[in-house]
Amino acid sequence: MAKSIPLIRAAVLGPMIRWLRASDLPVHERLQLADLGYMSGDEPELPVPLFFVFEFFRQMAALEGPDIAARVVTENSVADLGKFGRVILGSRTPRDALLRIVAALPRYSTHELISLRPIRGGLCVQAGWSMVLDGETMHLTQQFTASLIQGLYAATECGHTTPRSIRIRAHPAFGIEHLRPFFGSPLATSNEATLAVDLDDDVLDATLIVGISGIEKAPAEEWDFLNGGAFSDSARLVLGPMVDEPAASFSRLAKASGMSARSLQRMLTLEGTSFRQLSDELRRERALQALVANPGVISAAAADVGYAAQSSLSRAVRRWTGSSPKSFRPAAARLRGTGPR
To answer: DSSP string of 128-152?
Structure first.
């Protein structure tokens, strides 16, 4: 598989966004701190750069405390995970939910790893990332995942039951004691890069009381994988939502890729493209879609795709289609499917 930009669905931010709104704190300003200001906060299936999500977690911890990733998780958090959450809520038991999570994970994240290892009388759930992370990021993401697993495990006919063991990477400065109120005695320090949660068979096979059997297949075939394809495909996913912003710069894409500018340029060149070409293609697609939907409103379409003046878009449309914006509907309808995918 070709190297791709690390991505995850924006739904991973759902529990934190819900918490920010409930706390009457500014969602957009917090997203901006992690270069995610182009998001509305209500686009759960939008692919977003993992490096930006990790920065969002770190910024939240700096402002709200090192336990924030556990504190935001509630009984609503699985539902906040968008389509991924609906797959989980369609489960009959925690074991069924975990199997569905493993099956659906490549459609939710490119570099997240979750495995289920049999142990005596149960399963060990191991969760981590196929990339090198700093200690704080490991600690924050592991407490978030552990909280979701614990919440799922407790939501059965057995009542509120805690895992047998939760082994989590310690925060470099605060250790793990700040998490004791959330996880209690099962909590222990791990020196590993992966979270490990031991669960018992009798609870794993108990009926979930929060599930709604059959609401989502595991996984739905029409739900796209985030992995696979060319590197430029993942670059287009990153650039698409932000292409009309002045901040949609080459350096921003390099940051999202976790690469130096030189390495990014080399990768795009190897695939016969460039940052400028990708940006132009995305603006073209968005402009044609806007004008097909409403060909008479040229000024709005120009603003939507980042053109400073209506005349600039008019010249671009003539170059792309050979027609003026006001008369190009038939041409645009033919060209909508011919641009890069």
So the answer is: EESS---HHHHHHHHHHHHHHHHHH
Alpha-carbon distance of 304 to 299, in angstroms, equals: 9
C-alpha 1/C-alpha 168 separation (Å) is: 30
Which pTM was predicted?
0.87
What CA–CA distance (Å, rounded) separates 253 from 79? 30
Collect all residues with Cβ–Cβ distance below 8 Å to 166 and sequence separation of at least 6. Answer: 146, 150, 183, 186, 187, 188, 195, 196, 197, 198
What pLDDT score does 84 carry? 94
Beta-carbon contacts of residue 304 (< 8 Å; ≥ 6 apart):
244, 286, 287, 290
Structure token digits, residue 92 = 């009959």
Write out the two tokens for 231: 């590197």
Which of 245, 263, 242 is CA-nearest to residue 254?
263
Q: Which pLDDT value is given to residue 242? A: 84
> Helix and strand tally (H, E) in the chain?
16, 7
Residue 10 near residue 48 (C-beta atoms within 8 A): yes
Amino acid residing at 150: Q
Alpha helices by DSSP H, listed for 9-109, are 14-22, 27-33, 50-64, 68-71, 82-89, 94-108
| Separation between Cα atoms, residue 341 and residue 334, nearest integer Å | 15
Q: How much of the chain exceeds pLDDT 70, in percent?
A: 83
Backbone angles phi, psi at 113, to 5 degrees: -125, 130
Query: Distance between terminal CA atoms of the chain?
Result: 19
Which residue in the block uniquely carries the two structure tokens 């053109």? Answer: 307
What's the rounded mean pLDDT across residues 120-131?
Answer: 97
